[in-house]
Amino acid sequence: MYTLHNYFRSSTSFRVRIALEMKAIAYNNVSYALLNDEHRSAFYLDLNPDGLVPTLETPDGPIGQSLAILEYLDEVHPNPALLPDNALARARVRSLAHSIALDIHPINNLRVLKYLRAEFGAEDAAVTRWFQHWVAGSFEAIEKRLSSEAATGLCCHGDKPGLADICLVAQAVNNQRFSVPMDAYPTINRIVSYCLAMDAFEKALPANQPDAPEPG
Ligand SMILES: N[C@@H](CCC(=O)N[C@@H](CS)C(=O)NCC(=O)O)C(=O)O
């Protein structure tokens, strides 16, 4: 049995929850209130010295880094596959996923936003501008690719959701918290809506996690 150490609002945790749901893998859920620095506890740092969520605890040891977890799950539980079966297609899917996971997420992460506030006196409006700016840079490129490349289907690559959709949906949902304007991205919006209509994506949503606050 796996244990997922995560936080409802964390988009990197959301990515892993989607994959676990898609592959119908049961798991224990342990949550860490990031705003209370629970991920900086000695216990968690022992499990994951990065001090970032998620960590997937497997019977053979813990794995940190959401993309590494997703690829591990895909190797150990290959159905349904998160990556296509030819090398060029896999590279395309990974490159879309990396635009989000490696280019947007690291500079919009909680610790970066906290540092902007604490060290540079950034107010809420400036932090929001920062977040929106770095999303726009990559989302413009992703929209251009998805709307023009023949491999795009109902999902980022063909008609089945995979690694790129997982990263895209998690980022798009996170964007809502920072009121990122989305009108310029019709293809992204179409794919995100299509994926969110699926059970696996819906169940993995931040609002549907046990540590999410009650609505209202
Ligand atoms: N590259 C890592 C990033 C993990 C990460 O930054 N997680 C965020 C939540 S989405 C976190 O733990 N933030 C805590 C902090 O910034 O202090 C991954 O993909 O797992």
Structural category is alpha+beta
Domain count, please report it.
2
What is the third-level CATH name, the topology of the largest domain?
Glutathione S-transferase Yfyf (Class Pi), Chain A, domain 2
The profile of the biggest β sheet is: 4 strands, mixed
The number of distinct helices, counting runs of at least 4 residues, comes to: 9
Strand order of the largest sheet: 2-1-3-4
Q: For the terminal residues, how far apart are their CA atoms?
A: 34 Å
Strand content: 5-15%
Provide a brief overview of the structure:
Helix content is 55%, strand content 8%. It is of the alpha+beta class and 216 residues long. It has a four-stranded mixed sheet with strand order 2-1-3-4, with helices on one face.
Please characterize this protein's 3D structure.
The chain is an alpha+beta fold and 216 residues long. It folds into 2 domains: 2-80, Glutaredoxin (3-Layer(aba) Sandwich); 87-201, Glutathione S-transferase Yfyf (Class Pi), Chain A, domain 2 (Up-down Bundle). Helices cover 55% and strands 8% of the residues. Helix 1 (11-22) runs parallel beside helix 3. The longest helix has 25 residues, at 124-148. It is globular. The model has no long low-confidence stretch (mean pLDDT 97). It binds glutathione. The site of glutathione has 14 residues, from helix 1, helix 3 and helix 5. Glutathione binds next to helix 1, helix 3 and helix 5.
